[in-house]
Amino acid sequence: MRNSKRTDKWALWAVSTLCLGIPAVFILVPILAFVLNSLWHNDAGQLVKRLTLENYVAFFTDEDMRKVYFRTVFLCLSATVTNLVVGYICALYIYRQKVGSRLVLILIFTLPLFTSYIIKMYAIRGILGHRGVINELLIAAHVIQEPITAFIFSQSAIFLTLVVLYLPFSVLPIYLAMERIPENLRLASDDLGGKESHELKHIIFPLSLNGVVVAAVFTFVMTFGDFVTPQMVGGIDGYTFGRIVYSQFGVALNWPLGSALAVILLATSVVVALLSSLLLKLGVSR
Amino acid sequence: MQTPQELLKLDNICKSYGQTPVLKNINLSVYGNEFLTILGPSGSGKTTILKILAGFEEATQGVVLLNGQDISDMPINRRPFNTVFQDYALFPHMSVRKNVGYGLIVRGVGRAQREKRVDEVIETVGLTGFDKRLPAELSGGQRQRVALARAIICQPRIILLDEPLAALDVALRGQMCKFLKGMQRRLDIAFVFITHDQQEAIAMSDRIVVMRDGEIEQIGTPESLYAEPQTRFVAEFFGENNLLDGVVHSGDGTWAEVEVETDMGYLTCKSNNTATAVGARVAVAVRPENIDLLEDASRGYACKIEDIQYSGATYIVELSLQKASQIKLKCRLHGSRLPPALGVGDIVGVTWAPGSAVVIGKRDA
Amino acid sequence: MTRKFGLLSFITGCVSLAALVVIYAPLLTVWVFSFWKPIRVEGSLRLADFSWDSYQKLTENSEILETLRLTLTVGAISTVLAIVLSLVFSLFYWRTRGIARKAMQAIILLPFLLPPIIVGLSLLISFNEIYVRRGVLTIIIGHTVLVIPVVYKIVLNRLESINESYIQASFDLGASKFQTLVYVVIPQLGLAVTSGALLSFAISFDETLVTVFLSGSSSTLPIRLWSMMRLGFVPEINALASSIVCVAALATLLFWLVKKRVEARPRV
Lengths: 286, 365, 268
Description:
The complex is a heterotrimer of chains A (286), B (365) and C (268). Chain B is α+β, with helices and mostly antiparallel strands and 365 residues long. Helices cover 23% and strands 36% of the residues of chain B.
């Protein structure tokens, strides 16, 4: 559809340059810079700009670092799986309500997304701490005598906090996928005499799977990259991979190493995302 | 009424999407103040012609001439044509006033003059009092009037209408047909109307262009298309028709009349302006309403009555030729013309007035 | 169709209720503590009497208020920048074909898909390389980059749902491309831009993981709160937190109400 001629070509070139240029400069170039940084190395506090793979080698050879890495992967996978299960059940509950109630419910579930991340963490620390609400309640109920310290400053504390913080992030995509299921499929199942469990197994579950995958990838990537939570509720015991990455930019001041570890973190996230979509495709074709 | 000038000419227009040809060698003229309908089934290319006219598509070959000038490269917004879209495309966030006045707004017409023009046009289409409403608050017929008002306010040379009645229910369509025809007369500009509905076409048009598979089958007035179809397709598209295969036997020299040899015998037919050489394979068309039945079978072509259907004002009689029973004919008679003693199985004589048989010379696909 | 209240409903209902309790518990305790200050009485936790004290102290804490002001400013500027750029980008994607628009979209969406730590790091390293000091400017750039994908997607979805025949009709009636943009396209983007703006402001207001890499001496509220958390307890924090939650809740409610009203309008 043509609507003015020659000035068009010139204008198109100008706009294309702008539209491709700005994102490239502010997003692509920094990412390339960061990857490049991972290939440099730090020599006693000075940045040496020569290409080397020593940071990556350091990661693969350092046993402690590898231990933390796999521990974090396990931690985040557990948090993800937990959130998937709980999130799915919640999404299912909302889905099975009347349309008007659904809207209100999803609002209630996702409102915490718009409240402060830091504040929630602060509050959770308060609740879990050995002088926190849970301990006080348990003592008041005479269930225990002394406060339990296991709730805070441990890997389980990180796990619990991650689950609580990121639960709305898994409810939403799953619910949205369910919402997209055409209503007449459920009606047909009802009409053909299907019981609720049949409907769930054969209609709702398969068709909501891509929402589950989205939720899984989202949750894992966010928890794996979260370095504030481990620091706040993990204490000395709470070293996760994300925290190690962050510390390279803090006191340790080894940016190239930090960048390399961050590349590995990114690679992990990408692999998880790819695996999940692969799994989905396999599952769908069955 | 002055003789209409040729306003627009499509000269050998071809259009392909990739390898698929959609229009083949379209040659078409539009006259200054006629109501021209482009009629055809879906896929015939009729909408593509409109798009090329309006400028939404470019022809692969051929030119569009406006008063002799090539406007094929003219951008959409400069062409002096306005379109009424099938879904009306009324801007949903603008009131009727704003929608109608849009053409003037973008041309920078001053506010006072614009308001005046808008009022005039709204009155012309009969929507006075509805001007402040939003499109969502209007009925289908009202939206169509707004679309038309919006199209006429800039005083275009041609108004293009893309199946505008398709979205309306049947009862409303008849009303809108009358309305559009009346509008066209009143405005005295050319309307190019696209439809697949032959009833609409016959009711409103000065001329009809029948399209099939990207080619023009025939152009003519509704009467000429009905009485003198030039192809099998046209013959069967408008109403019902009896078609008999045959071979041209001889002519009277002027080719106004030809004799065709068919399974029914030698039929004298009007040659219908098609050049038919002796020996050419042709079809003979006779309209069911032109057929008479005679009780004395020997006075016509002897046929057996297969079925009689009563449909209120008429009887539809299905017949088969006695000597070649695979030849079937349909006959439509007013109640009073059906000999009362006749019933299914009887043999009757089929006849028709001399000018009723028409030769169709073009090969059909 | 009757939905029987069966075992499935019971289980899903219970779990959802428990989940809601768990999700809201932190917020609730903060809210409670803002009015009933927690105090230690003989080693165990007690609540003081109801008072507006924390809130009052909040209004007097100039440091926090200054940080709040900065956070709001950063949020506003990032949002405006994001809207302007997103409009350009989404219009470009909508009206062009070919590889340029695909490449652009892929790059734009990256900050949304990547872990925030990566986005933060890459910007930090880049700013360092070009000797730009960390401060308000870098924070604004970081937030804008994070927020553009959100606004872009919302606006693009709306653009792609606009019926092509409106554009055709506008051209047909004599409008230029620019006129069509101004008179026909942009007026239909109202809700999209508003929801994009609200969402991006909310994201910017709470943004922590990226901001931490881009902050200099002064910073936004989340960063300030984080350092306060590490250093010590200030009672105004509860008041501040509750106020933020209230504002966020009100804004979200408002947004939903407006959205319902707009969508309830009859559509052509």
